[in-house]
Write a structure and sequence with these properties.
LEA_2, alpha+beta, membrane, 2 helices, eight-stranded antiparallel beta sheet, 2 domains, transmembrane
């Protein structure tokens, strides 16, 4: 056998070895992914539940012109992980208040945290919005709410979560929760301003709608 034939056979054997290694690695990766996916299907993670427990309103004032709203409110939100085998990481979660679909406070960033199996986490962020411009029609709608004796604002939770199963950590999933807060009040309404629930604490225990 010539030197050229030996070199050709050596190159061919090396290619076969590389091909086998590639097939072996690919098969191992496919097996691992299949096991992870199968485990995921068996465990079937359930989204966290959120409850708006209370709200303390220090100020809720709307100036008629030029339609400026100022809000100072502290809320208590409880979240529970309903899963028995899956943990939840809260990576970046903001809380803010809206009225009739318009944001009226700055977002308050919750601390990053891990929620173990069946654990409950409680946050009490302070939500503030000073001289926030809103649409003109909100003044009319707020007057109607005042006449009815009830104002509803919405506490929004917006952020990202990850699931933890054993040592496996999933990618990030968008978390969105909407918590209605019905606030009754004693106050007065005039063309210039309305004051609702000044420094009053409302026990709400309101279940929130959650999407993940």
């Amino acid at each position: 056998m010539s030197t050229e034939d030996c070199a050709h056979n050596h190159h061919h054997e090396r290619r076969k070895l590389y091909r086998r290694l590639l097939i072996g690695v690919s098969s191992s990766i496919a097996l691992i992914l299949s096991l992870v996916f199968l485990t995921w299907l068996i465990l079937h993670p359930t989204k966290p539940t959120f409850v708006l427990e209370d709200a303390t309103v220090y100020g809720f004032n709307l100036s008629a012109g030029p339609n400026i709203i100022t809000t100072e409110i502290q809320v208590t939100i409880a979240s529970q992980n309903p899963n028995e085998r899956i943990g939840v990481f809260y990576d970046r979660v903001d809380v803010y208040a809206t009225y009739r679909g318009e944001q009226i406070t700055l977002p308050a960033l919750l601390p990053e945290s891990y929620q173990g199996h069946k654990d409950v986490t409680v946050w009490s962020p302070f939500l503030s919005g000073t001289s926030v411009p809103v649409a003109a029609f909100l003044a009319v709608e707020l007057g109607e709410d005042v006449n009815a004796g009830m104002v509803m604002i919405n506490i929004r939770v917006d952020g990202w979560v990850r699931w933890k199963v054993g040592t496996f950590l999933s990618g990030r999933y968008r978390l969105y929760a909407n918590c209605p807060a019905y606030l009754s009040f004693r106050g007065q309404y005039s063309p210039n301003s309305v004051l609702v629930g000044s420094t009053a604490k409302y026990q709400l225990v309101q279940t929130c709608h959650v999407e993940v």
